[in-house]
Amino acid sequence: MPKDRLKIEKLESENLSIENLDLTVGETIDETADWEPLGPTPYPGLTDLRDWDLKLMERYKPQYYPACSQCCFCGFGVCDLSDGKEGACGLRLHDQVARKNFMRATWGVSAHTAHARDVVDDAIEKFGPNVSLNMGDYVDVEAPNIRLVCGMKPETLADLRTVLEYVEEEIVQEVDALHTGQEGEYIDFESKALNAGMLDHVGMEVADIAQIAAYDMPKGDPDAPLVETGMGSVDKGKPNILVYGHNVVGAEDIMRYAEENGLWDEIEVSGLCCTVLDMTRIDQHPKIVGSLASALKFIRSGVADVIVTDEQCVRADTYREAKEVGSKVIATSTKICYGLPDRTDDPVDEIVEDMVENGQDGVLITDLEKVGEVSVKVAQEISDKRENVRAIPSQDELKEILEKCIVCGSCDRSCPNDLPIKEAMEEAKEGNLEKLADLFMNHCIGCGRCDEACPNDVEIMRAMEKAAEKDVKEENFKVRVGRGPVRDTEIRDVGAPIVQGEIPGVVAMVGCSNYPDAEESFREPLYRAARELAKRNYIVTLTGCHAIDVAYFENEDGESIYEEFSGAFKARGVLNCGSCVSNSHITGAAIKIANIFARMGLRGNYKEISDYILNRVGAVGISWGAMSQKAVSIANGVQRLGIPVVLGPRSSLYGRALMGDRDKPELWKTKNKRNLDEEFTIAPAPEHLVQYAESPEELMVKSVKLCIRPADTEAGRQIKLSNYIDLYNKYFNEKYPPDLYMFVRREQDVPMKHRKDVMEMLEEDDRWEKGKYGGSQPTLLDEKEIEEGLGKVQ
Ligand code: SF4
Ligand code: SF4
């Protein structure tokens, strides 16, 4: 539980001299604070919301598809868990799969929370503890996740330390539960994973509101500026510093150094993944090279004179790869040190000299101000000297590379996207580089496995990059800077249309960029889905890799998706919320709909708010690429709030779904929140809480279906069914989806254009029964939970 903490490094006054005081006093839940009454679950511990999780899992049963049937977590094993066998500790296979999901979620929440700790501590060191968490004129509910989970309203950076202490303590308890001989039942591993996910959204919110406040990032600005993205956006004529990772605090020092020394015309700062997304929220000079999929491609291009790494989603071989092309590496996070010497306490000039003159290829510097100066100076001094480094091969070198290829096909077999590399190499040997270039630009996710697999050490990626040299130069698109939170005023405007179903849904596209291949390009399905849904009046919200990758396309008028659609949280809006930690604004928006639109108290009122979201807010999460562990914890947090998630096929390795069973009416029995004596059966919506999609078409159809909610108005249900029918028809070439009978409560639910046909079809269908599904104010809560909650029945 949180405590008040007073830390004073040094204080001298007439009567008092204090040095290194670190004082912790009491617990700080102020039940009398007048901003809102306190709900039943402030600062929940491991099991305080377990009953809510069990209710969710009663309806949405965990399903497991193990990728591996062994456990090798401890020295009692390796244990074979196949065919119903138990491990040495008594764990069964499905328990182990649930445990792995939980374990991944703990890694994810730890990554974001440790990141948040760095941001808050760094911001307090730079700007002091009293920086106000003012999110701008249009945002009063500045921290919906923190208010909901912790029951506190943070006002300054210092308040965020209290929140972090709570989350950090809970993470320790969670990790403890993973130990051999601790938790043993799948259902409780699941509950703990959902708990980790919930904490993750708190941790992410801490990180993002701290950096928004400290660095004056956009505060819910729908018209945030557009910036350049793509490998071609980088000016290769200037000394280049590439920042790489997810934590902007060190990169901010580089930008500050460039600004204070008037160097923006003399150096080029570019970046990969979320760090650069967040940099552009502070200053628009840096260029976004791309997402995770561009990392190895760009590093191997040798364009970067200096690579500054921070944390998360950074390739383990970054230092080794950088050395190959003569780029210098500065590691800045204690979490990624690469075995490099710690030069944090050395003078700047000595470090620069060693890196420029004395062959030091990489250093660890955790003093971020020093990183700013060292990185710029090293880049400036070595840039000219590196002109002879030709990371991209010459024509002659390309010929030599191609000649080594014995056309064995090992590369094809190692490629996760089954790309026809051998065929492209064969054609390239004949002088036609087109296929190789196309693979590089549109289909290769930059994993490097083909190079590793080649028995003849053919540098396949270098060959591809040379073949695509001209296309790379032209890879330059527009992405809107991350806007941060959704404004309270936007929630007021869209609350009713979302809850009543007239805006058919809020779609959150979140995840990593190692997508399965697709006909035109591996990124295209994501763009197609975002555009299709936006055109159909859905609100599309994006963060991280997904936010970057949808920008790689232009419409008929040459506009990127961010130019074609508004950046506002409204129908047809396409919002880049920011980096991974900005995901908290998407869950925050769902929470704010319950709080601002439905006037439901949110302070420590987790179950009631989640129950509202599950039953009334048509929202769905999409992750098309493979998910990192952070994405697993993000998704678990989304699920606990009652928002379903559709995962792309790459995530099937995680082997877990939460599935409803439409054919079991008892699972869909619910009470009327207004009159608990009344019980009714709802249409099975949302049908699942976690499910997979094998194709982009399935992804879209499943996503629109999962936006259906039991409390939709008839007009709203008509709009949602209209989208479901249209997309099903468009992608599966059948006039009507076979499960339409589940979602038609009465004739008025059917879109006018289809009403006659659909009603005729339903009248002949034994499974459909007029009035079978119905009721209003559905709830999963019991009388006591409703009494304890803060909600008004709408
Ligand atoms: S694995 Fe190497 S040698 Fe074999 S086809 Fe691929 S590039 Fe050629
Ligand atoms: S680097 Fe590209 S081509 Fe090579 S294996 Fe990975 S995805 Fe396939």
Automatic annotation (TrEMBL):
InterPro entries, sorted: 4Fe4S_Fe-S-bd, 4Fe4S_Fe_S_CS, CdhA, HCP/CODH, Prismane-like_a/b-sand, Prismane-like_sf
Superkingdom assignment: Archaea
Question: Which SUPFAM superfamilies is this protein grouped with?
Answer: alpha-helical ferredoxin, Prismane protein-like
Q: What GO terms in the biological process aspect are recorded for it?
A: acetyl-CoA metabolic process; response to hydrogen peroxide
Ordered alphabetically, the record's keywords are:
4Fe-4S, Iron, Iron-sulfur, Metal-binding, Nickel, Oxidoreductase, Repeat
Q: Where is the composition biased (Basic and acidic residues)?
A: 781-794
Q: Which GO terms describe its molecular function?
A: 4 iron, 4 sulfur cluster binding; hydroxylamine reductase activity; metal ion binding; peroxidase activity
Boundaries of each 4Fe-4S ferredoxin-type domain copy? 396-425, 435-464
PANTHER family this protein is in? ACETYL-COA DECARBONYLASE_SYNTHASE COMPLEX SUBUNIT ALPHA, HYDROXYLAMINE REDUCTASE
* Name the UniProt record assigns to this protein: 4Fe-4S ferredoxin-type domain-containing protein
Origin species:
candidate division MSBL1 archaeon SCGC-AAA382A03
